[in-house]
Specification:
alpha/beta, UDP-N-acetylmuramoyl-L-alanine:D-glutamate ligase
Length: 481
């Protein structure tokens, strides 16, 4: 066995490595254990990030370190006892077994405090908080807008908040905190005099969106799109779609807005739903579109009123969301000037089509993206923009279930259609599928495979030159192979 593999398991840093694996798995036992069981060399576990020593992480790190130390001392004591008592075989054997097995034992035992804590403390506390929050939401007099979908939720929510705040008192859930516990915290933070609440719904497992709707009592619903995501839990795109569109069922088809640019949603759109996309929203039509690296401008008209809108958001796919925010703003009583001003204030959200300059090059950071529709939109933008040299960077997509090969072949086709000069792929289990898609589409540019993603991103300035355009899409955390 390789000496590096042995030392990675018996290293004094092993408790920190295990804690990092737990943290990267969001302290969920099942994904952590799957990662643990498939790992051979623990020295290369943290390639993309490092351990954040939060209070929870420190407690687990101490738990592991102390537990392992006790087992090591017990093993040594038994071996010492065996030596003093005439080389007692059983003491030697048990002592040696403890010394050999301690990393394996404690890397499994560490899930016990997590599971017991979740069952005995976290769940009962959460149930109480959710019950209280449900009452707060039900009694709140404001307009309550729920934002659900496989992608684009946070951008839609932040854009709505920015536009509606031009004339209304608005409060929205923070960042991408979109699960039951965060909805409960959000409810507790409300004053009761807000005119609009915007609540983002995450979808992680079947029934999540339906549960969120019954807890938060929305009056309006926005479905930003449907794409393969979280298929390790939903198993099929149809199951994800049924859960996401349960929001429309809760609202009985009233005040439901659906992004029709997402092909899979067509099967779920019902009469009465208002669809939106790059062409407009309902009776509101888009025209005079202009795209650039600095944003997008366009006109929006219903035949009576015309809005000339400008935004710093990047890409044609943003026009639908911008148009919807404008239309909802008008429906809720904002003036034409307030809507125009609000749309102009919208900023790209962190790691979501976020542009910045690096060594004279322009970089678009879309590393939060994690679905094929985001890849489609990003590569379409890359195709339309001009640059001295175009570079596309991605590790691929996670949680694509049984569609992993097909989705990544399609991803390769999308990338090829943008005609980048250089494609940089992070070596992992889907790299070959992306390369197959590129090859099938006749891609003639350069392909570079990277083994150390963290080093690549840290030294990106050494790859680019003035006039280059770099699009980075998606991230691939260490717990995915």
């Amino acid at each position: 066995m390789n000496i590096r593999i042995i030392t990675s398991v018996y290293s004094p840093r092993f408790p920190s490595t295990i804690t990092y694996m737990l943290q990267a798995s969001e302290y969920q036992s099942e994904p952590y254990l799957k990662w643990l069981w498939r790992t051979v060399d623990f020295s290369g576990v943290a390639r993309r990030r490092t351990l954040k020593r939060t209070a929870k992480a420190r407690m687990l790190e101490i738990f592991l370190a102390v537990g392992m130390l006790i087992e090591i001392l017990a093993g040594l004591a038994l071996i010492f006892y065996g030596a003093l008592s005439g080389y007692n075989a059983w003491a030697w054997e048990i002592g040696a077994a403890l010394l050999i097995a301690y990393p394996f034992i404690w890397s499994h035992l560490v899930v016990l405090p997590l599971e017991f804590g979740r069952a005995l403390i976290v769940e009962p506390k959460l149930n109480k908080q959710v019950k209280t929050a449900k009452t707060i939401y039900r009694n709140h007099p404001g307009v309550k807008i729920a934002v659900a979908g496989s992608y684009g939720k946070t951008t839609m929510k932040e854009l709505l908040k920015t536009v509606l705040s031009e004339g209304l008192k608005v409060k929205a859930t923070v960042a991408n905190k979109n699960v039951l516990s965060e909805h409960a915290k959000f409810a507790k933070s409300l004053n009761g005099d807000e005119e609009v609440l915007i609540i983002e719904y995450g979808e992680g497992a079947p029934g999540d969106v339906k549960r969120f709707a019954f807890n938060t009592h929305p009056t309006h619903g926005i479905i930003t799109g449907l794409a393969p995501a979280h298929l390790n839990q939903y198993k099929t795109l149809e199951a994800a779609g049924a859960d996401i569109f349960s929001l429309g069922e809760y609202l009985k088809g009233e005040n439901v807005y659906v992004n029709h640019e997402s092909p899979p949603v067509k099967a779920y759109v019902k009469p009465g739903y208002v669809t939106y996309g790059p062409e407009g929203v309902g009776k509101w039509q888009v025209s005079e579109v202009n795209l650039s690296i600095d944003g997008v401008s366009f006109s929006l008209s219903d035949g009576k009123t015309k809005l000339n809108l400008n935004s710093k958001l990047l890409g044609k796919h943003q026009i639908g969301a911008l148009s919807l925010a404008a239309v909802i703003g008008l429906e809720l009583g904002l003036t034409r000037d307030q809507v125009i001003a609000g749309v102009a204030k919208g900023e790209p959200f962190m790691h979501r089509m976020q542009p910045y300059e690096l060594a004279g090059a322009r970089v678009i950071d879309d590393t939060y993206n994690g679905n094929i529709e985001g890849i489609r939109a990003g590569t379409a933008l890359l195709r339309e923009l001009s640059a001295r040299r175009k570079i596309y960077v991605t590790p691929g997509l996670v949680d694509q279930g049984q569609d992993t090969k097909r989705i990544h072949n399609l991803m390769g086709e999308f990338i090829a259609s943008a005609k980048p000069d250089l494609v940089v792929l992070m070596r992992n289990s889907v790299t070959g599928f992306i390369k197959d898609g590129l090859k099938r589409s006749g891609y003639k540019g350069e392909i570079q495979i990277v083994d150390d993603p963290l080093s690549f991103y840290e030294h990106l300035d050494q790859l680019v030159a003035a006039g280059d355009l770099v699009l980075m899409q998606n991230d691939w955390t260490d717990n995915y192979a």
